[in-house]
Amino acid sequence: METAFRSRSRIRHIITERAPAKINLALHIRRRRDDGYHELETLFAFLRDGDEITITSGQKGLSIDGPFASGLETGGNNLVARATKTFAQLVDTKTQYDVRLTKNLPIASGIGGGSADAAATLRALARLNGIALDDPRLFACADALGSDVPACLYGRTAIGTGRGERLEPLDGLTGTPVLLVNPGVAVSTAAVFRAWNGIDEGPLGEGDPLAIARDGRNDLEVPAKSIAPVIGEVLDRLDETQPMLARMSGSGATCFALYDSEESRVSAAVAIRAGAPGWWCLESTLA
Q1: Can 103 be counted among the known catalytic residues?
Q2: How does residue 1 score in pLDDT terms, banded at 50, 70 and 90?
Q3: 22 noted as active-site residue
């Protein structure tokens, strides 16, 4: 969404960009690379809901609001601030911006929050500067910011290989009802990767996205449960709701379940909230 207002005889634009939650329908870790990253194969999918970025041209600074704003810093290490700086460097613009992040997703939860926020910032800045979303400079910005940012930049179901930056788009899951559940614990991605057993259990399968997901796995699920055992409880409760698929996303602790109807998702959410009222739940659909 774009609006404009007039201030001191100048037209200033406001861009609002959604930062959808990302889930890994499957995540296969193949090996640790010499550069410190892990070679992986993953099936990304995105929800219709998530955080939100609002950018105004002509000002400067980052502010954060929303239910999960607490604990986030606005300094140079914030991925949104880094995205703004990286964009300015690679696109060669000296324009300053006022950026507001509305944080609706839990922090350090395996659903791409920071990466999605950075990607949404890049998309908003591109729109403000008249740059196409498929401009190679925009992908370069995303790739420089982190392994999940390129996938979040495009925000559609895709197989990711390499660090996750090599993308092969897939169709077939749009509109699928999904329930996210987080037990209220933040899990360190680095700690989970360190706890991975290092065994290559094989590649992703073939077929439509749901078949690939069902035949797949999340290799970080076991190490994440060793760090935060409550993840196992979340998965058990989701399995009790008879979804098409239930799995942990990314490095956790958020888990997801896919359903064949909105009624099934609503019933599952009611059951989860009744049994664990302190857990965070989000009812949504796949984009």
Answers
A1: no
A2: low
A3: yes
For residues 20 and 49, the answer to whether their CB atoms sit within 8 Å is yes
Instruction: Return d(Cα 190, Cα 144) in angstroms, integer.
Output: 18
Q: With contact defined as beta carbons under 8 Å apart, do 100 and 133 qualify?
A: no
Question: What's the number of domains the chain is made of?
Answer: 2
Do 18 and 134 belong together in one domain? yes
Q: Which long-range contacts (CB under 8 A, 24 or more apart) does 259-264 make?
A: 259/176, 259/177, 259/178, 259/179, 260/177, 261/177, 262/177, 264/177
Its domain, for residue 209, covers 177-285
Give the model confidence (pLDDT) of 67-77 as tens digits.
999 989 999 89
* Set 49, 51, 117, 148: catalytic member: 148
Contact assessment for residue 66 and residue 30, using Cβ atoms and an 8 Å cutoff: no
> Token pair of 184, please?
């209220």
Name the catalytic one among 22, 49, 51, 117.
22
CB 170 within 8 Å of CB 185 = no
Residue 137's nearest CA partner among 91, 173, 190 is 91
Express each pLDDT in 91-125 by its tens digit. 887 788 999 999 999 999 999 999 999 999 999 99
Q: Are residues 185 and 156 in the same domain?
A: no
> Residue 124: which CATH number?
3.30.230.10
Residues 7 and 141 in one domain: yes
Check whether 36 has a pLDDT greater than 90.
Answer: no
Is 131 found in the same domain as 185? Answer: no
**Residue 270: pLDDT over 60:** yes
> In angstroms, rounded to a whole number, what is the distance separating the alpha carbons of residues 164 and 280?
27
